[in-house]
Model the fold of this input.
Amino acid sequence: MQIISAQQIRSVLDWPGVLDALHRGHTGARPSGGSYFIGDSRFGLFSRGVILPGTGAGVKIASIHPANGAAVPPLPSEQAAFLVLDECTKGLVAMLDGPEITRWKTAADSALAARTLSSEHAEVLLVLGAGPVARSLTDAYLHIRPSIREVLLWNRTPSKLEDARSALDARNVGVRIADDLDAAVARADIIVAATSASRPLIRGECVRPGTHVDLVGGYRPDMQEADCEVFRGARIFVDERQNAAQSGDVQIPMQAGVIRERDIEGDLFDLCRESAFHRSVGDRTVYKNAGGAHLDLIVSQYVIEQLKSR
Done:
């Protein structure tokens, strides 16, 4: 079995390649899978498995220990690996660095959908969150929307954004740390949230017509990055229906009667297969990026292929 490090993954990936691989992976059969979690808020073990016909199978294993963030120096609160199984033999092929795969697949998930759902002329990008996934999302959006002229960064602890701001400054990208979130939301053409918020940060009354809202951070039923008004009257899409239905971002508006299951127009498989989606200038679009092991598998298989072709 091959063991593939984060450095090896970074050495063979770029946004065009990852987006193309993810698009191809969403034109075939849909995945089947499941997940489980044991533990509590102090320490937990998470696993999610998937079988994707024509591609293979895989399992993500993660250890979640929030107290690591308070260590000196800080340690990752989540440590993970992704195991890839061969399509034919069902044997173990490789184990890849989990956080690095997550960083690429999460941002590519959102960016692939946003190529269709966001305005081609978007100029202002607002990113909520200060972690590595938030930075990866920023990179991915700048790749798919070269029209973006300004990036607004927001986090509850603004000092955590200094490295991200410096990195964007070095690339000559217009960047500003926002202190008034409502005002930043009102200015943005694209809003991306990658936080662990349990109370809504994005208020629907501040979101302009034509804005694309991408909700990434919430994965539990009690987590909610946008209030119910963000969903009211919006065109709603998700990456994978089963996983999205378990998130508070989707569950809570449904429980409140603001949206119904039939209000979800489609998932990422639909967006990759169909060219019939037409976006009007005033359409507000909402995309719930709930993730899934099939995304890890597609990106991991692409990494393995790229390493072999060297």
Summary: The first strand starts at residue 2 and ends at 4. The domain at 108-292 is CATH 3.40.50.720 (Rossmann fold). The mean pLDDT is 94. Residues 98-117 form the longest helix (20 residues).
